Amino acid sequence: MREEEVVDDMVGASPAICAVFDMINKVAMTEMPVLLTGETGTGKELTAQAIHARSRRKHGPFVPINCGAIPENLLESELFGHERGAFTGAVQQKKGKLEAADGGTLFLDEVGDLLPSLQVKLLRFLQEGTCERVGAQETLRVDSRVIAATNVDLKSAIDQNRFREDLYYRLGVLHIHLPPLRDRGEDALLMAMVFLKQAAVAAHKPIRGYSAQAIDALRAHSWPGNVRELSNRVRRAVVMSEGEEITRQDLDLAGEDLQAADSLDSLRAAHQRIETELLVQALSLHHGNVSRIARDLKVSRSTLYRKLRQYGLEKFIPTGARPAGTAKITRKRAVGALAHENGAVMHEEASVGVPMEPASRLP
Ligand SMILES: Nc1ncnc2c1ncn2[C@@H]1O[C@H](COP(=O)(O)OP(=O)(O)OP(=O)(O)O)[C@@H](O)[C@H]1O
Ligand SMILES: [Mg+2]
Fold first, then answer.
1. Does the CA dihedral 301-305-307-313 come out positive or negative?
2. Which of 187, 266, 306, 322 places its Cα 20 to 30 Å from the Cα of 274?
3. Are residue 266 and residue 316 in the same domain, yes or no?
4. pLDDT tens, position by position, 75-94
């Protein structure tokens, strides 16, 4: 993957997530709907935002609506709007989310929860670009791109006649599946580093990394809540931490499904695993200082750079310290509500490249 293709906002270097980044880049410039699937917390909403941000509609609105969270009787009016007097309580005309997303992107979350009558209306919008507000006579033409997401299996919903097959095919021409974190190799460690950096900065704590046992625990855990769980555990650990290092206890992962020694790694896989682990540890210990890491790991700087590139870890080296021509930082991470302090939400943004350093703004 070329550097320019790396997706803003999203962390990961595993082949599984790189394939997703690739897809995001490919689908972003089209106007077609996109269907995002994946377990809870795998990054479907973040992916929808990344697609929007890379599309021609990026200056238009990104409007999310969660079809599963809105009572059925309100959803039609939320989505398509209503005219004054359309129903009791409709005291004035109201635009729906679809209209609000005109010129931008509508993110239809939990699309599997749409009632059949609304599925028909959505299908018609996707086919013809038109819809009506509830109670309206006139037809509206709306220019919104639809990105839909679901963590239920739409195919089985189709089998049970709960989801229209024609809508599924219309929505799912471009389909991106977000892999669970347990299938993303060392990405959990990478993300743990990035989230730690952000959380430590937000909490004003001088935490420099993870203990060896904490790294073992991070690697052994199966992450049923995926990236959201990882991010929450790291933020909690930063609050709990009393030292310079996050411990296994801080992560509250003590004694959890530590890897059973029932299957043998290939020598090569074991080698890669140990190398990544050591590199992540050294990076967090030395704040990305290349000379110190090379000295500690007893390798030359050039071998170190080669290894960091091999494992997608070069972004943890401060830009100035990299040899010319290695890696531009094209990947930045925007962090939304990182911490609530005195009731206020602190908005911090951090660049991924430099562990434990203040953030730069996303353009
Ligand atoms: N690749 C990633 N890099 C960094 N942060 C990520 C990544 N993927 C997800 N996250 C973060 O993890 C959290 C969950 O992501 P998101 O809300 O997009 O998941 P989701 O698939 O929509 O979950 P749900 O199905 O529960 O709605 C968010 O805080 C998001 O910023
Ligand atoms: Mg979501």
1. positive
2. 322
3. yes
4. 999 999 999 988 888 889 99
- Pair (266, 164) in one structural domain: no
**50 Cα: distance to centroid of ligand 2 (angstroms):** 13
Let me know if residue 25 belongs to a domain. yes
Q: Is the CB of 151 under 6 A from ligand 1?
A: yes
Query: In which band, very low, low, confident or very high, does the pLDDT at 144 lie, cut at 50, 70 and 90?
Result: very high
Does residue 193 sit in the same domain as residue 321? yes
Residue 309 lies in a domain: yes
Residue with tokens 């990076």: 283
The ligand whose atoms approach the alpha carbon of 40 most closely is 1
In this prediction, residue 335 carries a pLDDT of 26
Cβ neighbourhood burial of 350 (10 Å; 0-12, 13-18, 19+)? buried
Residue 196 maps to a domain: yes
Rounded CA-CA distance 276/215 in Å is 11
Owning domain of residue 92: 3-179
What DSSP designation does 61 have? -
**Domain stop point among 125, 156, 179:** 179
Which residue's CA is the closest to the ligand 1 atom numbered 26? 40
Closest ligand 1 atom to the C-alpha of 194?
A: 4
Q: Does the Cβ of 112 fall within 6 Å of ligand 1?
A: no
3-class SS at 201?
helix
How high does pLDDT run on average in the chain? Answer: 82
Question: 49 CB less than 6 Å from ligand 1?
Answer: no
Shortest-distance ligand to the CA of residue 20: 1
Q: What is the pLDDT of residue 362?
A: 23
The verdict on 96 and 221 lying in the same domain is no
**Does 211 sit in the ligand 1 pocket, CB within 6 Å?**
no
For residue 228, pLDDT over 60 is answered with yes
**Residue in 42, 109, 234 to alter for ligand 1 test, most ligand atoms within 8 A of Cβ:** 42
How remote is the CA of residue 228 from the centroid of ligand 1, in Å? 6
| 272-326 residue pLDDT tens | 778 887 888 788 777 778 999 999 999 999 999 999 888 878 777 776 666 654 3
Proximal ligand: closest to the CA of 226: 1
- Percent with pLDDT over 70 in the chain: 82
Q: Three-class SS of residue 335?
A: strand
| Domain count of the fold of the chain | 2
